[in-house]
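Before our next group meeting I need something from you. Please put the record directly below this note.
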Amino acid sequence: MATGSTDSATSRSSGVLYKLFVVFSVCIAASTYQALQPPPPKLCGSPGGPSITAPRIKLRDGRHLAYKEHGVPRDEAARKIVFVHGSDSCRHDNAFAALLTPDIKDGLGVYMVSFDRPGYGESDADPNRTPKSLALDIEELADQLSLGTKFYIIGYSMGGQATWACLKYIPHRLAGAALVTPVVNYWWKSFPADISNEAYNLQPRNDQWAVRVAHYAPWLTHWWNSQKWFLGSSVVTRNLGLLSKSDKEILFKIGAAGRPHEGEIRQQGTHETVIRDMIVGFGKWEFDPMELENLFPNKEGSVHLWQGDDDALVPVTLQRYVAKKLPWVHYHEIPGAGHMFPLFPGMVDNIVKTLLTNEEVKN
């Protein structure tokens, strides 16, 4: 009888332990799942969300795209340019409009529009963002602003993903394109493994892991860059330590007053801005830019790629290989320049005039 009571007690104890184990496992799983889920973006104009101050267009899927116009009046312009900003930036970060001299702007009749890429500034987030969707956003922006059948595009840094996509998906709408230190995807299939691996290993270890996670496990990217156990992406954490000497000198000259709008950039959240950039930029692309064909065989337009040879963010070796694979792209390499070389005196004029006339500015 005593033995039976002992067995029963043991059985009950085992059952309680099992139930506790199940409850504990469920709690851990729920906690892990919640940690992996990014918070929803704070939509502009929603209750408690950021205010809407910029003009916006409504896109095909109901999203809104905020934009800013520069240069000569749109209806008087001879040449119209769409500018695509880089990572951790917004429509206000357009050095190509701010630094363009009147000689070029007025002399060539230049109108320019910059816009907040999805999730940035006052543009609605797009959780389904791809390089192709960015190209279609740009085409729709051009149509709603009546920019005409053809327009120019300049993509800076992470804005290069949209520019490559425009060359792929809407080439018939382009009068010309300039890719300015565009971010490169290490997994584009045309890259030889040795060249890609060498460039990949030039990054700090934390950035190697950050882009690797973005490529192989995009669902983990939010957690990876928000946990406190180890360093995530330097871009996400705004770690300026990895910049080249020339870039640091430029930032020192600009000072804290250089971006009074900085709080607006990520006001909808980090995930649909810099983290989504990583997922899209380093993810699995539907096409390889190095397989694109010459858009302007009759030289009615041109495509230019500008790169500093001391860029600590975008390895020059990969850009040289891209230029080698695409001989119809005009490659311009700037000695001693880092990622922010468009802020060099006269550089904006040079890039814009070269794009619009195929003639470089003579200093």
Notes: The first strand starts at residue 56 and ends at 58. DSSP finds 13 helices and eight strands in the chain.
